[in-house]
C-alpha cells in the first residue's frame, strides 16, 4: 500500500536557542533544516512511503547543507531545484510554564523558494509521478507567485487522478492586517481542490467566515465541519483540540470527519520536549491511515499518537516509525526499551 507522496513547501533553517534561554540571553544557536513540507514528506517516508519534496534551494553551500540534511531524512531529491541565493530562517525560543515558545522569522520573502520564477517547476511531469500531494496554509500566505504555483500543481495532480491534501494552518503574522479577508478567497480555492483537509472550527469561523450560534468549541466543530465538507465536497476533514494544563503538560484529542460521521481519539496527556512540528505528525498519521485503509477509529488514534510522540523528540521533523506509533496507541509509558 506504499504511495508516492510529495509535499510542496519551503525549506527553512531552524536556529534554536539552547535549553529555555531567551534569544537575548543565548551565546550560541543550534541549526537544522525544516518546514511543513520537509516534516510531512519525511514522516511519510518513515512510515514506508516514497516521500518527495517540491521546493527550491539556493545554489550555494547553505543549499548544499540543506539538501544533505533532507537526504538524511529519507526525502527524495527528484523534484528539488536549485537557484536563488537565500534560505529563509527562523529563531526558536523554547517556552516554559506560563511563557510560550516563540518563533521569529528572518529573510523569508527573499528565500529561493519564495522568489522562484513561474517556470521553475514542471507540474504536469511531477503529477504523473506522484499519487498524493500535500500543501500548507503557511505556504499559501507567502505571495501571489507561490500561490499560483500551489494552485497549478494542485490542478495538475487532480487532473492526473491524484489526491490533494490541504492543511489550513492559518498564521495571522504572515497574512498581516486584514488577513482573514485576504486569505479567504485563496483558502476557498484550495478547499475546492482538496480531498483531505486539516482544519478545526476556528478555521471555518474566522478564515471562511462561517456563522454559528454555538458557544462551546465542540458544538461549533460539530456544526461547522459537516457544512464545510458538504460545501466543498471534501471526503475527509481532520484536526485536533489542545489544552495546556497547569502542570506544564498538554492534552490533545484528535477528530476525523468521514462518511458524514465524527470519530474522536482518546484524550492524550503528556509532557512537552519540543512542540514544533507536532501538527505535521498528526497530518501524516491521517494520510497514512487513509492510504492503509484503517478504520476511522484507528486512523485518528494513530494520528493523535503520532502527534504525541512528535512532542517528545527534538526538532521539527517527526521521527517515529509505524511500530513506534502503534505501540504508543496501546501501551502505557514504561521503562527503558531493551
Short structural summary:
It is built from twelve helices and 14 strands.
Beta strand count: 14
- Estimate the strand proportion: 15-25%
- Low-pLDDT runs of 5+ residues are none
Between the first and last Cα atoms, what is the distance in angstroms? Answer: 30 Å
> How many whole angstroms does the radius of gyration measure?
19 Å
Question: Which key terms come to mind for this protein?
Answer:
338 residues, four-stranded mixed sheet, 12 helices, 38% helix, 23% strand
Describe, in plain words, how this protein is organized in 3D.
The structure is a single chain. The protein has helices at residues 36-46, 61-72, 123-128, 137-140, 144-159, 172-175, 179-193, 201-207, 217-232, 278-292, 296-310, 322-330, and strands spanning 4-8, 12-16, 30-34, 50-57, 80-82, 88-93, 102-106, 132-136, 163-167, 196-198, 236-244, 249-258, 261-264, 268-271. The longest helix is centred in the middle third of the chain and has 16 residues, at 144-159. By secondary structure, the chain is α/β, with parallel strands linked by helices. The protein has twelve helices and 14 strands. Strands 1, 4, 5, 8, 9, 10, 11, 12, 13 and 14 form a ten-stranded mixed β-sheet that branches. It has a four-stranded mixed β-sheet with strand order 3-2-6-7. Helix 8 packs across helix 9 (217-232) and helix 11 packs across helix 12.
Helices, strands, pairings?
Elements lengths: L3 E5 L3 E5 L13 E5 L1 H11 L3 E8 L3 H12 L7 E3 L5 E6 L8 E5 L16 H6 L3 E5 H4 L3 H16 L3 E5 L4 H4 L3 H15 L2 E3 L2 H7 L9 H16 L3 E9 L4 E10 L2 E4 L3 E4 L6 H15 L3 H15 L11 H9 L8
Parallel strand pairs: 1-4, 1-8, 2-6, 4-5, 8-9, 9-10, 10-11
Antiparallel strand pairs: 2-3, 6-7, 11-12, 12-13, 12-14
Helix pairs in contact: 1-10, 5-7, 8-9, 10-11, 11-12
Amino acid at each position: 500500500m506504499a504511495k508516492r507522496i510529495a509535499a510542496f513547501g519551503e525549506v527553512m533553517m531552524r536556529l534554536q536557542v539552547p535549553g529555555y534561554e531567551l534569544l537575548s540571553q543565548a551565546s550560541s544557536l543550534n541549526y537544522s533544516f525544516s518546514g511543513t513540507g520537509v516534516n510531512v514528506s519525511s514522516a511519510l517516508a518513515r512510515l514506508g512511503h516514497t516521500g518527495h519534496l517540491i521546493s527550491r534551494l539556493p545554489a550555494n553551500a547553505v543549499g548544499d547543507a540543506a539538501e544533505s540534511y533532507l537526504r538524511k531524512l529519507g526525502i527524495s531529491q527528484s523534484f528539488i531545484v536549485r537557484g536563488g541565493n537565500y534560505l529563509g530562517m527562523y529563531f526558536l525560543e523554547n517556552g516554559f510554564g506560563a511563557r510560550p515558545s516563540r518563533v521569529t522569522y528572518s529573510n523569508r520573502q527573499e528565500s529561493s523558494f519564495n522568489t522562484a520564477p513561474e517556470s521553475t517547476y514542471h507540474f504536469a511531469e511531477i503529477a504523473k509521478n506522484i499519487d498524493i500531494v500535500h500543501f500548507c496554509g503557511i505556504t499559501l500566505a507567502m505571495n501571489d507567485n507561490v500561490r499560483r504555483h500551489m494552485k497549478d500543481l494542485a490542478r495538475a495532480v487532480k487532473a492526473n487522478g491524484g489526491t490533494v491534501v490541504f492543511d489550513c494552518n492559518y498564521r495571522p503574522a504572515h497574512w498581516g492586517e486584514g488577513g482573514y479577508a485576504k486569505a479567504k478567497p485563496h483558502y476557498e480555492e484550495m478547499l475546492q481542490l482538496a480531498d483531505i483537509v486539516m482544519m478545526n472550527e476556528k478555521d471555518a469561523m474566522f478564515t471562511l467566515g462561517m456563522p454559528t450560534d454555538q458557544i462551546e468549541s465542540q458544538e461549533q466543530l460539530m456544526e461547522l465541519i459537516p457544512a464545510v465538507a458538504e460545501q466543498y465536497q471534501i471526503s475527509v476533514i481532520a484536526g485536533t483540540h489542545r489544552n495546556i494544563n497547569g502542570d506544564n503538560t498538554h492534552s490533545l484529542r484528535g477528530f476525523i470527519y468521514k462518511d458524514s460521521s465524527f470519530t474522536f481519539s482518546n484524550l492524550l496527556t503528556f509532557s512537552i520536549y519540543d512542540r514544533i512540528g507536532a501538527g505535521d505528525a498528526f497530518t501524516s498519521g491521517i494520510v497514512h491511515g487513509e492510504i492503509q485503509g484503517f478504520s476511522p477509529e484507528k486512523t485518528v488514534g494513530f494520528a493523535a499518537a503520532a502527534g504525541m510522540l512528535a512532542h517528545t523528540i527534538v526538532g521539527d521533523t517527526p521521527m517515529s516509525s509505524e511500530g513506534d506509533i502503534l505501540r504508543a496507541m496501546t501501551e502505557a509509558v514504561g521503562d527503558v526499551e531493551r
